[in-house]
Amino acid sequence: MSAYEEFWEEKQEIDALMEKGFTIVGVAEIMDGMDVRFAREASEPNQTGLRLLSADARKYIVGLIIEKQRKAL
Questions:
Q1: Domain boundaries in the chain?
Q2: For 36-56, what is each residue's pLDDT tens digit?
């Protein structure tokens, strides 16, 4: 699988969760990627997560976090 295809699949998973009303509540860098936690509300005990392996998907997540912070200002 090409790097672009890997990114595209991870981006589709992220976008699908965001469309369902999930928001990013936590990220953790790991040796081979990034673990991202999503929840509908920050205090919701029922969370889901993704492991992102492509650098472009990790950059995409960071962009979403920055956009969310800018809107909060």
A1: 3-72
A2: 999 987 666 788 999 999 999
